[in-house]
Each structure stands twice: as structure tokens, then as C-alpha cells.
Amino acid sequence: MDFLKTLNINAHNKGVSTGLQWLKTKGEKLSSFSPVDGTLIGTVAAADRAAYDAVVEKAQSAFAEWRTWPAPKRGEIVRQIGMELRQYKTALGTLVSYEMGKSLQEGLGEVQEMIDICDFAVGLSRQLHGLTMHSERPGHRMYEQYHPLGIVGIISAFNFPVAVWSWNSMLAWVCGDVTIWKPSEKTPLCGVACQNIIQSVFKRNNVPEGVCGLISGGRNVGEWMSADTRVPLVSATGSTRMGKAVAATVGERLGRSLLELGGNNAIIISAEADINIAITAAVFGAVGTAGQRCTTTRRLIIHEKIYNKFKEHLINAYSQLKIGNPLNEKNHVGPLIDTDAVKNYVDAIEKCKAEGGNFIVEGGVLKGKNYQSGCYVKPCVAEAKNSFEIVQHETFAPILYIMKYKTMDEAIALQNGVPQGLSSSIITNNLREAEQFLSAAGSDCGIANVNIGTSGAEIGGAFGGEKETGGGRESGSDAWKVYMRRQTNTINYTDKLPLAQGIKFDL
Ligand code: NAD
């Protein structure tokens, strides 16, 4: 396990840090077991309230200085982090794969995403533009500028254990904010590894202590952060259940929350689809990361004319899937995160059957040699109705529901007919169909693709979704604005004081 040594991960790790040093804590121990083979990789000491408060206090004092650094100088720190990540790409990608269970290719891809967002943020550090407006008053100038906000609390999910932190942190740092990260308690070592990687960059550049805090822990630590008025923005990625709790707590104190929650993503496969594209998009989308991406394809809405033929293609493609150790690049599908996730998968299959679902590819839990962790399951496909309760719900596992449509209006209604609104896609060579899908009367999701599946977004676009997905946007485009406070400035350079709206007030 050389990658653990490279990342400075031990059997017992401290889990609370101000960025430059690790703090002592009497918090519970989080044990990290690999879903790949069930091995205990290490333990991490979670934050107790005193350690949490110490990190927040350090972050407050760091912010007072960090916000005065010119944004391009902050960008230079992020550039160096990007260089460091390039050096640690293999080790960190391997840890992501081993601790979370996604394929090594996807683990490495996740670290590549971190590197990409660093590059994006470096450019952004010279482009935090406001607008200039024309004043209605003579001799006046009006403009707006963006200032740093303060502490950004980051709560992340297990399935992207490092990338989500980087999407938030790199942008927040160039914007002049300081961050405190609570990684998922299911992947705590990824949090420790990232902190180890960036510490040296912060040290050698004399970055004030407290710019990048880490508070390992469970839900209670996330709850402290949500309720804390010292944290103006809480960026939370995870289930809709968690998002509703965070939104209520942050809303109660009129703080700002950025929510990236569950999806229930569909691909519409038109009668005029390129079938090769459709099959690859559907199968990769449904089984990649063992169905544990927020953008995983959960539903296929297939035109009735090609329905039967497409079913055969699907059965054939699923029969070729290799399930096993994700560090072995020959395997397509790795394990689920833990045995609770396996139970949810089994329950969902039973519920689907009870509601009348017909499995054309059967599921099941794998046992025996190579599957000792108990977390490996068979990707499966069921004919189902969109109205089934189980189809309306996001089960974080490789279960794909398929259904038929006649008209494009009907397909779009099915696609939109779920509580979530993250990612959507249509496979078609028909321009009219594609444009209808992208129109105001088309997909209601934050992401709508043509001839690409639902999963695998690039960092250049704003990422996020509508409805129960939470409405937040992260990563590219102008997502940076949520990390800053906007200020409108009006300057009078005359010796008179004309009032707005022509109001007279003579003394
Ligand atoms: P989860 O909701 O169980 O946990 C996510 C994080 O929230 C963890 O760090 C957890 O400790 C914390 N948490 C849980 N309850 C909390 C509370 N009441 N207050 C504060 N913090 C709390 O989710 P998970 O199982 O780790 O991840 C899977 C879910 O995440 C799926 O629903 C998936 O779709 C979603 N997800 C969404 C996106 C996106 O960008 N939209 C990306 C990745 C994952």
C-alpha cells in the first residue's frame, strides 16, 4: 500500500486541522473500511466541539488577512496546489478508488477534475468582474464590485470524496474566502490526504493559518456548521434528506446555502437515435461508479418503435459487464460503499417487483472469493412505470428502470415527472426533437445534454440542478458569485447633491 505512505496516511490519523497544524480532539474515532476488500485502512479522530470552535476561530482571524491579499496572489497559491495535485495524482486517485470503491480510472479522473478546477480558478482570480452602470444623476458614477464573504463551510458526500471539496475550495480561496471542510464520514481518509497535500503549499507561502480548515466527523459536525452564524455560506452536497435539514437550519439564521443534492436522471432514446451512442451512454451512465453518481442514469425513456430491439442490446451489453476489484482495470463495476447501501439496493429491487416491475436483467448480491467485503452487487434493469414510488426515489445503486413513449411531449413529461432535477439527456439525430428537449418547454433539469449521457460533467460549466436537487450551482461559468458578497457603489464627484428619482430636499 505505497500510496498510503506517499499520502502520509497512518493507522491512526488526526482529523482536525487549521491548515498548518493538526489539533488534538476527544471526538469519536471514525474507522475507514475499504469496500473493495473489507480491510480497515485506518482510523481518523473526529472533531469535538472544542476542536471545531478552535478551527472556526482560526478561520475568522485568517479571513481578516486573506481577504486583503490581491486575488491573483491567491490564485498563485491555487496554481501551486494544482502542481502539487499533479504530483500526487496516482496516489490520491488510488486512495479514492480504494476507500470509496470507484474504478481506478474514475479515481484518477476525479483527481484530474481537481487539477482542472485549480487551472480554472487561477484564471478566474483575474476575472472577478463587476459591472459599471450609468447613473441617472449628473456627475455620478455607479458600479458594483464583489467582495469576499468569509468562512465557507463545505459538507461533502462519499461518492466524490475529493473533487467536490476542490470545486468549492479553489473558487472560494481565489474569491478571498476561507474554508472549513467536513468530509463524508464514509471517506474520512480522503479528507486527511488532501489536507496533507496542501499543507506544504500553505506553509511555504506563509498563508495565514486557518484558510483551509478540516473538521472530520459525522452528521453532528455538519449540524454545528449549519447552525453557526460565523459561517455565512454552507455548501452541502449529499442526499435530499440532508439538504432539507441543512437548508432549514441555515435559513433559520438567514445564512446562505449552496445545495447539491440527489438526482433521478433519465435519457430519452428517440426512434432516430444513434444506437451505438445510446447503448454506451446508457450502460456507462447506469453502472459507472456502481450507480453511485448523483448524475447516474436511473431511467431510460425509449421510443416504442425501437423498444424491443433496444432491450436486446441492453441485455447483451449487461451480460458483458465484469464486476470486481475496481483497482483492476479490466473490471467495469466495483462495490457499493457499504453493506447499508447493499441493503437499500436489495430493498429497492423488492419494492420494484412488488409494484409490478419486470426485471429483464436480474440483480443480486455477489458472494464468495473476491467479494468478501459483501458490497458487490449485480447491475440490473427493470421494466417499470414512472409512477412507481420506487422509480420516483433515488436509490444509490446500479438499478436501471426502462419505459416506453410514443410522442416527444410524452417523453419530456416522463423525464420531468420526478421530484429531482439534476441531469437529463436525449439521444437523437433529429434537430426538432433535440431543440424541443432544450427549449423552455423541454427538460426541467440543471443539465440537459444531446447525444451524451447524463453523467460526466466538465468543470467549465455551472454544475447543479433544480427542484429537490437543491438549486445550487458549483464549479464553472459564474458559479463563483455565490462565494462573494455583491456591493453597489455610487460616487458623486460634483459639489452638488442631486437626489435619485429627482426628489427635492432643500434646506
Ligand atoms: P448523505 O446525505 O448521507 O451525507 C452527505 C454529507 O452530509 C455527509 O458529510 C454527512 O455527514 C452530512 N450530513 C448528513 N446529514 C446532515 C445534517 N442533518 N446536517 C449536516 N450535515 C449532514 O449523502 P451520501 O450518502 O454521502 O451521498 C449520496 C448522496 O449525495 C446522493 O443523494 C447523491 O445524489 C448526492 N450527491 C449529489 C451531488 C450533486 O452535485 N448534486 C454530488 C454528489 C452526491
TrEMBL record:
Alphabetic keyword roster: NAD, Oxidoreductase
Domain Aldehyde dehydrogenase: 22-488
SUPFAM superfamilies associated with the record: ALDH-like
PROSITE patterns named among the record's database cross-references: ALDEHYDE_DEHYDR_GLU
Keyword Repressor on entry: no
E.C. numbers: 1.2.1.3
Name this protein carries in UniProt: aldehyde dehydrogenase (NAD(+))
Keyword RNA-binding part of the UniProt annotation: no
Catalytic residues in the record: 260
The species this protein was found in: Ferruginibacter yonginensis
Pfam families (alphabetical): Aldedh (PF00171)
Top-level division of the source organism's lineage: Bacteria
First-tier enzyme category under EC: oxidoreductase
Similarity comment: Belongs to the aldehyde dehydrogenase family.
UniProt cross-references to InterPro entries, sorted A to Z: Ald_DH/histidinol_DH, Ald_DH_C, Ald_DH_CS_GLU, Ald_DH_N, Aldehyde_DH_dom, ALDH7A1-like
